[in-house]
Amino acid sequence: MRKLIWTLVIVAIVAIFGSRAWYLYQHKETGDNVVKIGLLSVLSGEFAAMGEELNNGAILAAEEINQEPSNIKIKLQIEDGKAVPKEALSAFNKLLFSKIDTAIVAGDNQILPVAPRINAEKIPTIVTAVGSIGYLEQNKDKYMFHFSPSNYYCSYIVGQYAKNDLLLNKVAILQMDSIFGKEGTKGFINGYNQQPVIIEQFQANEEPRATVLKVLDTKPDGIYITGYGPSYISAIKRLKEYGFEGVILSEPAVSNLISGFNPREIASGNIFAEAKDLKSNPVFAKFNEKYTKRFGKSPTTVSAQGYEAVYMLSKAQKQNPQQIQVGLAQIQEFDTLFGKVYFLNDGNSTFDLAIKQMQPDGTAKVVKE
Amino acid sequence: MTYVLHQLIMISIYLILVYATNLVTGLGGLMTMAQAAFYGMGAYVYALVALNMPVGFVASCGISLLVAGLVAWILSKVVLRFRGETFVLATLAFQMIVFTILDNWEGVTGGSYGLSEIPRPSLFGWEVSTVPEYVLLSVIVAALITGVFWVMLNSPFGLSVRAVRDNERAAESLRISPQKQLSRAFVISSVLASLAGCLFASYVTYIDPTSFSLTESIFILCILLVGGSGNIIGPFLGVLFMILFPEGLRFLGLPDESAANLREIVYGTILIVLMYYRPNGFKGIYSVK
Question: Is the pLDDT of residue A162 over 50?
Fold first, then answer.
């Protein structure tokens, strides 16, 4: 009897999931004007905060486009890749199963395993919120388009500024253990053109108190801190808490109101590189207002990337309704919340960046263009 | 369709991993936390050989299995001095060491960047380049390993490892050397885990340390516990459940904003309920302490 019950339970579960899968497979929302965008995001694990910001930006853009009188309608499908290669691959295969027309992929650990699938299935894809552009080496058929301010380049110009303008001689580096953090360190050292006094790593899910104290022991005149998320914010908090009086050089993320982070109190004085006219841009102010109204919190750079990625795909669809890839390749210049973005032949993009300093009132002032 | 085929490949790879763990945990009664370390070692050695030496798939796998076997043999001299919780801690420490090496030895392993563009297998002129071809390869390998495990289960070796598990003293009185038998089981288990690593690396074509973390070791162990250890059917049921169920939850049609978190909650709840009603797993004959 027990065996029979267990068998029935298993058969019922399989039948429920199977029929749902079959329904989704058969009922694709089709039509010439419906663009189905698969968003491979990170919704659980250490980088979930970033994924949520990205999704919100993309959802807002899709809602706006769908309200426009134009013919194009966006159907957004979001899957969680957990920033783990096997999960990312599985989630991307699920998106392919749902017959997406095009995709947005976020995160270094996600784009690298799915890049061969993008090429094999010929899915035009915008890659965003990544630290490294290493995947572009696999972009042989030009199906991947990089849309993310390069952490390497942002850090490179901050390094140059530290050396040539601030004349810092003894810089220490606090780096989050991730591709994003490592790209930042590489860029900074190359721009600074000198070895730092110390490089210390902290984990994405740790309270970096001890690491910060170790770095402060070297008595640097400047600390470059690279990373993202709660532990990164915590490291900046600790530097201020322990009375560090030197210059804090940081990431564009410092200008964001990310979870639990109030730049007015914490990041005031920090030097970082960011898109030149991000906050002063009136379009950004409007986006900020709409986003805050919809999600009850301020947007971040990552939200803006998700938002713009959807708009870019809809523009590509308008330019070439039959082949989004061709439409994307035709976009050489795109006016975004980050100012003008220029696309290169290999799929990479460049942004107009400037060195900024956080002010006590929470705004960022351009100190060098 | 690729999505379904992808699940079949993952089922095959995890089946090998779980049979490997079953050898030490189910038959030997020792809860190992180092499976992901050998899985990763297999993947990395395979990738490094395949990327730097044009020796072919079989030779690359061979080198990878050899390295894993050698490391496991040396490790077994140390960790098999311990039993129970101490053994768990010793293997856990090894897992942490391997993960740290993979994450930080950037010049060799690529560190957090991992290794990409790992070549797909080519077997005696057969280029395994498409997903259906890879399904065929992985299912054949998994079937072979299942066969080997089935033979091993009732072989004199399998029986002596089980005897050691049930009563070490009694086994010794029958001239069975617990150290020798457990060491053999540990080495074979590590070699099989590294084979799964080779298959994984050549299929995904990109590997990074996050795929071989402690979480992965725990996941492998969970599959075994849910399915039931010490036999051949349990691991199979465990793999089917633990791989397919979370994927099935993707089809629940939950709202995008909360789907991922809700899925994790549903998954966790079902696991708790399952372990409450089936503490030995679906088909367990030995309860891991």
Answer: yes
Residue type, A148: S
Mean pLDDT of B87-103: 95
A210 CA: distance to closest CA in chain B (Å): 19
Domain identity same for A220 and A199: yes
B230 three-class SS: coil
Cα separation, B229 vs B285, in Å, equals 7
Question: CA–CA separation, A274 vs A252, rounded Å?
Answer: 5
Chain A CA closest to residue B237: A10
What are the tens digits of pLDDT across the range A229-279?
778 888 888 888 898 889 999 876 655 544 344 555 677 788 888 877 666
B113 contacts A179? CB cut-off 8 A: yes
Q: Do B251 and A86 touch (CB under 8 A)?
A: no
Residue whose C-alpha is closest to residue B210's, from A85, A41, A231, A123:
A85
Residues B180-219: tens digit of each pLDDT: 999 999 999 999 999 999 999 999 999 999 999 998 999 9
> Is A28 a domain residue?
no
* pLDDT tens profile A90-114: 999 999 998 899 999 998 889 999 9
DSSP 3-state of A269: coil
pLDDT tens-place string over residues A298-335: 787 788 889 999 999 988 888 887 788 888 888 888 88
Total domains, chain A:
2
What range does the domain containing A60 cover? 33-149+283-352
Q: Are residues A260 and A336 in the same domain?
A: no
* Distance separating alpha carbons of residues B25 and B230, to the nearest angstrom: 8
pLDDT score of B99 more than 90: yes
* Cα–Cα distance measured from residue A162 to residue A184, given in angstroms and rounded to the nearest whole number: 14
Phi-psi region of B126 (alpha: psi -120 to 50; beta: other; left: phi over 0): beta
Phi/psi for A18 (5° steps) reads -60, -45
Split at pLDDT 50, 70, 90, the class of A339 is confident
- Strand, coil or helix: A123: coil
Nearest CB to B206; choose among A48, A77, A85: A85
- Chain B nearest C-alpha distance from A29 (Å): 15
List the CATH number of the domain containing A173: 3.40.50.2300
Contacts of A143 (CB under 8 A, 6+ apart): A118, A119, A122, A123, A124, A125, A325
Same domain assignment for residues A46 and A66? yes
Residue A139 shares a structural domain with residue A231: no
B interface with A, Cβ–Cβ below 8 Å: 1-4, 6-7, 10, 103, 111-114, 116-117, 200, 204-208, 210-211, 245, 247-248, 250-253, 256-257, 259-261, 263-264
Q: Amino acid letter at B251?
A: F
